[in-house]
């Protein structure tokens, strides 16, 4: 297996992986509205390949809450035939290791039962709103440098 920056992976391979992991109706998800028209952050977006096959990917995007910068993590996608074999954990660790102290706090929409192990929680996100439907328990923040963030505000793409 090898790791590649996601910018080096074909859009067709990435779309096929995301359709497999999340379904072809994935574009209607609120997370897609959040990062509309944004480019992924190259140093935090990776793919894992095996013999040329894209098995897993993680993408991160610049977003904001009010005037504060955040990094939206996700989608994190693992091919259905390789789920629960450690690839999701590996991607998350790769991304966290690549994040620098200058990078903004991380936000994501995901299952706290899974992402809690990487330091994400919904404890400080209850005053935030999103441009589409969401479950408050699944709006997760990892603010390891304790950056001051607005208590209330709408999340959306960075300008
Ligand atoms: C969610 C996902 C990224 C996890 O990656 P993965 O490579 O399959 O999982 P890992 O091998 O890293 O971790 C496996 C562990 O996480 C748990 N786990 C996996 N997905 C989980 C979820 N959605 N909620 C809670 N726990 C989960 C497994 O039960 C397993 O637990 P264990 O360590 O106690 O045995 C991957 O399964 C995926 O792409 N799923 C499809 C998309 C999806 O359903 N996303 C929902 C979350 S946003």
Radius of gyration of CA atoms, rounded to a whole number: 15 Å
The CATH homologous superfamily is termed Gcn5-related N-acetyltransferase (GNAT)
The proportion of strand residues reads 25-35%
Low-pLDDT segments: none
Helix content: 10-25%
Counted up, domains total 1
In the CATH scheme, the class would be Alpha Beta
What can you see in these coordinates?
The protein has about 160 residues and is α+β, with helices and mostly antiparallel strands. The protein has one domain (about 1-155): 3-Layer(aba) Sandwich (Aminopeptidase). Helix content is about 20%, strand content about 30%. It contains 4 helices and 8 strands, in the order E-H-H-E-E-E-H-E-H-E-E-E. The longest helix has 12 residues, at about 10-20. Bound molecules: coenzyme A (COA). Coenzyme A (COA) binds near residues 76, 83 and 114.
Topology:
Elements: E1 2-5, H1 11-22, H2 30-34, E2 46-50, E3 53-65, E4 68-78, H3 87-98, E5 106-109, H4 112-115, E6 128-129, E7 139-142, E8 153-157
Parallel strand pairs: 4-5, 6-8
Antiparallel strand pairs: 1-2, 2-3, 3-4, 3-8, 5-7
The chain binds coenzyme A.
Keyword list:
159 residues, 21% helix, binds coenzyme A
